[in-house]
């Protein structure tokens, strides 16, 4: 069965485009990763809660959204085509045997290229005022590492036009905010580099700690916070 290159949510009332690269843990029936199915419920396969927050935020703002439709264990839509982790053979200590000795070009053509083409075509037709991508992160890596105290991180590369006011506003709400944490958008910003910065569209990535958005109450809370933030950002653009 074929997989649509992206899930598209229509929205007409807000000049914001939402993106969610790691929205799905789906593995097409004709792909065998040769892993324990339980791994598909972990962060290595999907940004837990990110799709739910994206859909809830899109609904609150009547904003459009584009979401990925396959697990990042199949192919990581938030990586450049030549990135060594595009089709992971090991992720956070877990081996992915089914990704060894596969036709990486076939997966690129089948999933990665159509997904990004969908975003490109949408932007060309409707150019948004700004773009936000939604992700989630683990309280700490499975294979060790320190605790990550941030509740939300704002990631950006060269364009900080909206990132700075977002960080400041979130901080005023009493939240623990990471400035390019838990990792830096200057190192990993593939989707926004390509679709936002390359088109001079203000943008940043949102990273929410996934233990905060694992249930409906958490999703609703964070969608509300982000909706309020989005309205503040729209005001920033009008200055």
UniProtKB/TrEMBL annotation:
Matches recorded under Gene3D superfamilies: Zn-dependent exopeptidases (3.40.630.40)
Pfam families named among the record's database cross-references: FGase
SUPFAM superfamilies the record matches: Zn-dependent exopeptidases (SSF53187)
Stored InterPro entries: N-FG_amidohydro (IPR007709), UCP029730 (IPR011227)
Record protein name field: N-formylglutamate amidohydrolase
Source organism: Sphingomonas rustica
